[in-house]
Amino acid sequence: MSKRVLTTESGAPVADNQNSATAGVGGPLLIQDQQLLEKLARFNRERIPERVVHARGSAAYGYFEVTDDVTQWTSAKFLNTVGKKTETFLRFSTVADSLGGADAVRDPRGFALKFYTEDGNYDLVGNNTPVFFIKDPIKFPDFIHSQKRDPFTGKQEPDNVWDFWAHAPEATHQITWLMGDRGIPASYRHMNGYGSHTYQWTNAAGEAFFVKYHFKTNQGIRCLSSEQAAELAGKDPNSHQTDLLQAIERGVNPSWTLYVQVMPAAEAADYRFNPFDLTKVWPHADYPLQRVGRLVLDRNPENVFAEVEQSAFSPNNFVPGITASPDKMLQGRLFAYADAQRYRLGVNHTLLPVNAPKATTAQNYGRDGFMAQRNGSRFDKNYEPNSYQGPAETGDALGAPLAVSGWTGTHAAPLHTKDDDFFQAGELFRLMSEDEKKRLVANIAGGLSQVSREDVIEKNLAHFYAADADYGKRVEEAVRALRED
Ligand code: HEM
C-alpha cells in the first residue's frame, strides 16, 4: 500500500508535522508556517454550542419495519404496507446536564427518532416518559433554568428545582414518574420511548385521528436505584454510551415495538381528560395499544461529532398523513428546534448527511447562507412559480384541518371532566407496590429535604397530598425525619 501523505486543508503535502518553522535554530516562529497556523486556528474552532437541553447523547442507525396494517388511520407512505422498511436514526439523551455530565442520573431520557421516508424525513422527538412537567411552552425556559446549573453556585440546586415545582402543580404527575423506579434507566436499551404528545393522523379518506406513540423495549425494562446509579456514574460516566455502542458492535441489536393509541378526532372534545394536555396519559382501558411495527438499531455512527453532535431533530418535520395536534407544548416545540439548530449548526444544517433526506431529495428555493453546498444546476431558477419546470407544490392536503373557535388571548388549557393536576399522579402512586412507594418517597424526600425554605417545602407537600393523602403523609414524614437528622 502506498504511504498516505499528510496534507494541509488545501491538499498541499506537509513536510514536517513535529517541528514548527523558526528563524534560525531556537529562534522565534515564522508566520509563513501554514501548517502551524492552520492547525492551531482549526483547533480553536472545534467546539460548537452544545444543545441547550439534551446536550449529552448517544445514537445509532437502524430501520423501522411495519408489522401491522394502520392504513385505516394514516396515509403516511412509510406506514402503508406491512413489511415495508424505512431507515432510521435514533438519538438518546439525558436532559438537564451539560456535555460533561454522567449518563446514570435521575433525569428523563430523550428518544429522538428520525425516519428517512420517501416523503422526506419524519422526526418524532420524544422522551422515555409518557408525560411532561409543564403544559405551556411559555414556562419552558424558566423550567429548564431551574433544573440546570445555578448561575452563582455553578451546580444544580435543590432550592431552584423544588421552587419551580412548588409553582407548577401540573408537574406532580411527571415528578411521581421521575422519582419512581423508572427515573434512572439501566441503559438506553432497557427503557421505553414515547411520543408523549398527541399527534394527528389522517387517512386516505381525509378522516382525522389523534394518536399517542409508545415504543416498548424488547430488551425488558431495567432500572437503577439511586445508590447503584451514583456508583456507576462515578465508575463510568459514559455507561449508557458504552452499553449501546458495545451491544451494537457485538451484533446484539436492540429493538422496540411501536404501538399507538388511537382516538377518533370527534371524541376529543368530550374525553374525560384534555387529550392535548402533555401532563396527562390516556388510560389504556380508554384507548388500547395498537401494534404498528418494529424499530431495530443495527449500526453505530462512524463519527460521533459529525453524526451525533450535528444531528438535528425537529418536531415540525412531518410527512403527509401525520401532523400536529393543538397541544400547546407541541405547538411551541414546532418553532423551537429548527430555530435552535440554525443557531447551533447554521442555516444549512439540513444538508449534513445525517440530517438530509435519504429516500428522496430536498428540492426547494432556499438558497445560500453559511456553508451552502447545494446550488442546483445552471438551468435551475431560484424563484417559484417559474416557467422552467422547477419544483412545484403538490396541492395535496398534508392532513385534515383542525377546527378552532373562540377569541385570541392568553388562555389556560381548557378543563375536561377529570382534569386537575393531581388525579393521574395519585393514580400512578396507587398503582405502585409497597416497595415501590417506599423508594419513591425516599427519592422525593432526599431532594425536598435539602430545600432551605420551609414555604417551598410546604407548597410541594400540598401537591403530594392533593394527589393522594397517603402519598402526602409519607413524603411529609420522610422529609421531616431527614431534616431533624
Ligand atoms: C432538545 C426545546 C419540550 C424532547 C431540545 C432543544 C430545544 C428544545 C431548543 C435543542 C435542539 C437542538 O439544539 O438540536 C424544547 C421546548 C420544549 C421542549 C421549547 C417545550 C415547549 C420537550 C418535550 C420533549 C422533548 C416535551 C419530549 C416529549 C427533546 C429531545 C431533545 C430535545 C429528545 C434532543 C433531540 C436530539 O437528540 O437532538 N428541546 N423542548 N422536549 N428535546 Fe425539547
From TrEMBL:
PROSITE patterns per the UniProt record, alphabetical: CATALASE_1 (PS00437), CATALASE_2 (PS00438), CATALASE_3 (PS51402)
Gene3D superfamilies per record: Catalase core domain
Span of domain Catalase core: 7-392
Matches recorded under Pfam families: Catalase, Catalase-rel
Domain of life according to the entry: Bacteria
SMART domains with a match to the protein in the record: Catalase
Ranges where the record places region Disordered: 1-20
Keywords of this entry: Heme, Hydrogen peroxide, Iron, Metal-binding, Oxidoreductase, Peroxidase
Entry keyword Oxidoreductase: yes
Reaction catalysis annotation: 2 H2O2 = O2 + 2 H2O
EC numbers, comma separated: 1.11.1.6
Recorded family membership: Belongs to the catalase family.
Name recorded for this polypeptide: Catalase
